[in-house]
Amino acid sequence: MYALLLAVIYLAFISLGLPDSLLGSAWPVMQQTFSVPISYAGMVTMIISGGTICSSLLSERLTKKLGAGIVTTGSVFLTAAALFGFSTANAFWMLCLWAVPYGLGAGAIDAALNNYVALHYSSRHMSWLHCFWGVGTIISPYIMSYALSASTWENGYRTVSLIQIAITVILLCSLPLWRSPNQKTATAGEPKKVLGVRNALRIPGVPQILLGFFAYCSMESTVTLWASSYLVRTRGVPEDKAAAFASLFFIGITAGRFLSGFVSEKLGDKRLIRIGTGGIAVGILCILLPLPSDLSALIGFVIAGLGCAPIYPSIIHSTPSFFGQEKSQAIIGIQMAGAYVGATFMPPLFGLIADYINIRLLPVYLAVLTLLMITMIEKTYQKIGRNGSGKDC
Question: Which of 170, 206, 247, 358 is the most exposed place for a label (fewest CB within 10 A)?
Fold first, then answer.
């Protein structure tokens, strides 16, 4: 039963990643379909992220009341319905409308599952589970790339929606496993009293980790949205190939999380985060190199992805250790909200830079966000007074 529930959670993490890279992969063509400026992709992501912020902040109450199994199942169904709605859109405002349930579903599942795994599984499983998120982000650009070359972008969204519906059915069938007395439930380590956002923000180190997480997710989501357009407009890569090449970033994340799972307990979360930030810096430098070949940029996206690999799972996994298990659901919920604040405003901000200045500034923009991330995470360690090494962190 334990192995079966773990397999279901792995599948749920795939469902988390499936929608995340669709818009960036398809936007060069969708922009032409709706006859809107390139920066309008940022409007869609802002609405999606706004929904995730709301549901992340409510995740503590939802998970406490309903349990992680029901929250996860309902959230995947909500994103499936939203993706199918995207496939039926014939005007830009319809994309904005369907972005609302898309965001609400994504935020709730993210916070509930991450806290569940942080409480009940080792850092190894956290890395590997987020590796499966990367599997989802790799699969969907290839689905979209095939759809762009063989039919239309609408069919790409429709295909991913059908996959999400199938995952919803599996999750629905798995609900008895989540409630089984032989398993730890999603609310096993939670307090009876809800901590709330205001009280969580008063805890030393929480504001700093929120800013660090904000910067990291801003950087990751900016690459997700603009890597394909960057390759098309600055490197002259064909649109269908750019959609596939953009997935190199996610291949780097996925491979890195698979590898970090083998060393996470030995190195500890703090060391993994520092190694990761170094990898991001090297990757950005490769993208910046003004070489006539596309190879340096493509390698740069892979290296940056490898650097990103341990950062998200390590920050989440260390949360119960740093701040206490009874507080982890509330803190992880606002971490998710802070992350999506970055995803809401920072990719659209770069869209304006691309429109009014130059899309070639993408690697410079990423470098600034990386510097902010490093600074805030180091200040977090200073505030909480922990060394960040060992099995607990």
Answer: 358
What's the rounded Cα separation, in Å, for the pair 216 and 343? 10
> Do the Cβ atoms of 154 and 45 come closer than 8 Å?
no
Task: State the CATH class of domain 2-384.
Answer: mainly alpha
CB under 8 Å to 15, separation ≥6 — which residues? 76, 79, 109, 136, 163, 164, 167
Give the alpha-carbon dihedral of 201, 204, 207, 209, to 10 degrees.
-120
Instruction: Give me the residue spans of the domains in the chain.
Output: 2-384
C-alpha–C-alpha distance, residues 90 and 294, integer Å: 34
